[in-house]
Amino acid sequence: MKILWFFLAADAPAPLILPDSVQKANLAQTVQKLMNLDYHEVLSGLISQSVWIVLKILLALAIYFVGRWIVRRIVRLLDIAFEKRKVDTSLRSFLRNTIRVVFTLILVMIVVQTLGVNVTSLIALFSAATLAIGMALSGTAQNFAGGVMILLMKPYRIGDYISAQGQSGTVREIKLFSTVITTVDNQTIYIPNNAIATAIIDNYSTAELRRVDWSVGISYGDDVDTARRVLLDLLAGDERVLKDPAPVVYVSALADSSVNLTLRAWTKNSDYWDVFFEYNEKIYKTLPEEGLSFPFPQLDVHMKQN
């Protein structure tokens, strides 16, 4: 066994240990190099590199701020061109946002290249990141596509009063990914373009004229002809109510507690709400003066005694 261990130990590689003289020689050479080093040259090189880095940063900042001014100027010139050519307001807003985003990305790439970063590698990295983010945020891409569909199909424009996704208001802006509407009580609501593009949209602003409907209940026993005459006389002297088509009154239902009349009149879209609310009050005040009453819901109970 001792003989076998001797041969195995002889075959194992021995650790590399430099003689003390060699180690001292290397240390002396290192010290000599440090002593012979031109510190003035080293310091000058560091200062030169620092100045160059600072200059690149300042140049990049200058390019960024000047580029931002140029982007704003380009967007402004495009607005003027769109206005002269009478481009649709909704399309103008969408194109303005898209152009601003594209030119801002180009500006960022120029600034990064000025700082000395390899733009090719950055673009490859950005493309991979965009693919990953696009898969994770597929809904955002759908919202962008929805915005394009809205601009192409034009179910509504900026300034239209619409009702969609349970919200009603005036369209204020069509962005890349959402539509901004303002409600009558001045709330701002953002609706994703994908949701609104595939939803049922009520656009109240497309037609010049709108029909106003009132439902009026009178008591059983009241004269229907008198009620019809009173309602039509109320509208007769109002210039906002169109004469053609003329207002009409129908008996729409014989309800449990009342005879329901429907009054219909046509007016301009801009006058719709004023006419509707004003004549709600006039009907309530005028009909009782003519001997007509508004019945309350009632229930007849018959008691049978055994």
Structural write-up:
This protein has 306 residues and is α+β, with helices and mostly antiparallel strands. It has nine helices and eight strands. The protein has helices at 2-11, 20-36, 39-84, 89-114, 119-136, 138-153, 193-197, 224-236, 272-289; strands spanning 161-164, 167-174, 178-182, 188-192, 202-203, 209-218, 248-254, 259-268. It has a five-stranded antiparallel beta sheet with strand order 4-3-2-1-5. It has a three-stranded antiparallel beta sheet with strand order 6-8-7, covered by helices on one side. Strand 7 and strand 8 (259-268) form a beta hairpin. Helix 3 (39-84) runs antiparallel to helix 4, helix 5 (119-136) crosses helix 6 (138-153) and helix 8 crosses helix 9.
Overall geometric form? elongated
Secondary structure: helix percent: 55-70%
Helices, by number, come to 9
Overall pLDDT: 79
Side-by-side strand order of the widest sheet: 4-3-2-1-5
Intertermini distance:
125 Å
Largest sheet: 5 strands, antiparallel
Q: Please tally the β strands and state the result.
A: 8
